[in-house]
Design brief:
The chain has twelve helices and four strands. It is mostly helical and 272 residues long.
């Protein structure tokens, strides 16, 4: 308990604060320190919150003697060291787009051998350099895209790690009666939840239901069509209700397991 601190709202009555502190035997937070390298509080200025990442990247780049490094050496250092620095923070928070652009600009200047205020020509666009080597690029990370992919991984955990403390806390607060894919942002969400929520479209685009009983899969809106260009049915017909599920199309008494008459009625809507 010696390391435990509580954060109280400004509107909390001082007597209530005192009573809670006495019961728990802890102190209230006097300043927002970091916990495991992450900011414990993200204020309005996202730039100032994550400024430490930029300082660490700058220190690394300044400490290297780029004039003594080959292009291959610079590539290894950028991929293995510099672009790995913000990975931990990016797995929890959505980094501002402008901040990512600044980091990429610093890396690009190092790559082209620019020192201080010296101006050098960047012979290749950074977006081109972020493409894979098979496509003519160098395989550097697009930090904004990489950030979203890491947050999507956290969203995937919310879907599949039902027994974890991480899922239990977020589910109880933000989607107690549904799953992550059907959740809403809600009012006054934390910055961590807002960050993970922004990655939900990525999970929806890349996921696909496996048809079992079909009682949890919505005909319209969920990705469940594996053999078509479009994974979901967007256009609705009047044959089934708006909240119909795939189980409504099934008939266990038939050899195929499907209600073929109903499926044939929906065939125009199942086409991509």
């Amino acid at each position: 308990m010696g390391k435990t601190e509580l954060l109280f709202s400004r509107n909390t009555d001082p007597s209530v604060i005192s009573a809670i502190k006495d019961v728990w035997g802890v102190q209230d937070i006097q300043h927002h320190a970091k916990y495991l390298g992450l900011p414990s509080f993200v204020g309005r200025s996202r730039y100032q919150t994550f400024k430490g990442i930029k300082d660490r990247v700058w220190a690394k780049l300044q400490g290297w003697k780029e004039k003594l490094l080959s292009q291959a050496g610079r590539e290894v250092l950028i991929k293995a060291v510099v672009q790995a620095i913000p990975t931990y923070v990016m797995s929890c928070f959505k980094i501002p787009r402008g901040f990512c652009k600044e980091l990429e600009g610093m890396i690009a200047r190092f790559w082209w051998g620019q020192r201080g205020q010296e101006k050098r020509i960047h012979w290749l666009n950074w977006r081109k350099m972020c493409q894979s080597k098979f496509m003519g690029g160098l395989g550097f990370r697009d930090l904004e895209v990489f950030n979203i992919s890491l947050l999507a991984r956290q969203g995937w955990r919310l879907l599949h790690s039902q027994g974890s403390l991480f899922t239990s806390v977020f589910k109880a607060k933000y989607f107690p009666n549904t799953d992550f894919l059907s959740s809403m942002l809600g009012s006054k969400p934390s910055y961590v939840w807002r960050s993970i929520f922004e990655a939900k479209p990525v999970i929806k685009a890349g996921s696909l239901w496996r048809i079992g009983k079909g009682d949890n899969i919505k005909i319209w809106g969920d990705n469940w069509l594996a053999d078509l260009n479009s994974k979901q049915v967007v256009t609705r017909c009047n044959t089934l209700a708006e909240d119909a599920v795939v189980a409504d199309l099934m008939d266990p008494s038939t050899p195929s397991g499907w209600n073929l008459d109903l499926v044939n009625q929906m065939e125009p809507f199942l086409r991509p």
